[in-house]
Amino acid sequence: MDKRKDAVKKVIAAMTVGKDVSSLFTDVLNCMQTENLELKKLVYLYLINYAKSQPDLAILAVNTFVKDSQDPNPLIRALAVRTMGCIRVDKITEYLCDPLQKCLKVEFF
User: Fold this and answer.
1) How far apart are CA 42 and CA 48, in angstroms?
2) pLDDT tens profile 9-31
3) CA-CA-CA-CA torsion sign (46, 42, 17, 2)
4) How many CB atoms lie within 10 A of CB 58?
5) How far apart are CA 36 and CA 92, in angstroms?
6) Can you supply one Gene Ontology CC term for this chain's record (predicted)?
7) Could you give the CA distance from residue 59 to residue 57 in angstroms, rounded to a whole number?
8) Are the C-beta atoms of residues 59 and 26 closer than 8 Å to each other?
9) Nearest partner of 4 among 25, 32, 23, judged by Cα
10) Where would a tag sit more exposed on the chain, N or C end, judged by fewer CB atoms within 10 A?
11) Torsion region of 89: left, alpha or beta (phi above 0 gives left; psi -120 to 50 gives alpha)
């Protein structure tokens, strides 16, 4: 787990200094289904930045967004909802509307 987190941190660091790391989209996407909140945040940050350039691959993230938007942990739900709202890809926007609406209606106690 730590190796994956360290690798994604390096990818994000390269991304923030302007390097094109879009070729790593599939590898980063494979790290998305994790219980580690820090790793999940890093992957979601990457997706926000590169989903538009990789729309066909970005659609693979939809199921994880849906699952995370129903998580009992409010931080994970909020992260999923925020990330879904930030992704501006026509191909996946339609898939994200229903989970967003459900998440906004459900109250977790």
Assistant:
1) 10
2) 999 999 999 999 999 999 999 99
3) negative
4) 19
5) 25
6) membrane coat
7) 5
8) no
9) 32
10) C
11) beta
